[in-house]
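Posting this for the archive.
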Amino acid sequence: MSILITGAAGFIGSHVARALLSRGEQVLGIDNFSDYYDPALKRARLDPLCEHKGFTFVEADISDRKATLGLAIRYPGIDRIIHLAAQPGVHLSLTDPYVYVQTNVVGHLVMLELACHLPRLRHFVYASSSSVYGSNRKQPFSVTDRVDHPISLYAATKRADELMTEVYTHLHGLRATGLRYFTVYGPWGRPDMAPYIFARAIAAGTVIELFHRGEVTRDFSYIDDIVAGTIAVLDRPTSEPGHRFYNLAAARSENLRVFLGHFEKAFGKAARIELKPGPPGDMTETSADITDTVRDFDWHPKVQVEEGVPNFVEWFKRYHRL
């Protein structure tokens, strides 16, 4: 039996794969090395996985029906799926909406079809996003909140994924769990996200643009905690077919300027800051209610930013040979 991980060369996917391999699982990874950011980083994440005898890799695009559905024939022993592949980010969706629909909506649909073709499948776990909470003003966000008003196309595609999964669990008897990840950071993180941007700018002495004039709060969630939560959920599917959601987050919202201060401390160097108005589609505040996640999986986030940021900076310096 094996676990299929989509987006295996991605930030979260590579960490999850490594953790599963370390406990003796057989892992099948798939990724298409999208050029949204430098594919060299993705290949560097993947290389150590490919050295593991329990890991098999297939380079393919999840929205390619022939390639993806063919996995059911080539690897009929797949009994769990962790679907993490997606087109991330909010800003690009303003200029290239088609790639979001192709990857996040069509790709997710193909993955659901694949799930229906795997007779041994026990659990379909997939990445949703805190972005689905959209313009909700109630904080912290709870999985019982309505999510009818997304404010970016990215968020809309993630909500579409949730709705499609609901249909497939009803029609085909899948056991599915959607994970609403909040801002995940840590070693091997994405270069388009604030932690990497902060580290790169402080190291180079360049200006950091703080949008919304820095008046932003985020539930920054450390990668090790997110991996532990993802695997805890994977290991406990529902006893009957059905669909459920959980928030995965630190449950501690941080002001962006305070968060930046931890990077300045880790580098021993002040950041150059320019305050700017925010672009459309940005959420200015996110915080998570993880009561259900803690109750159902006995999962507790452990790494706070005071520890997580120095860990990331240490990796950043090593990776970039600073």
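Residues 2-183+222-249+287-302 form a domain with the Rossmann fold fold (CATH 3.40.50.720). The chain has a mean pLDDT of 95.
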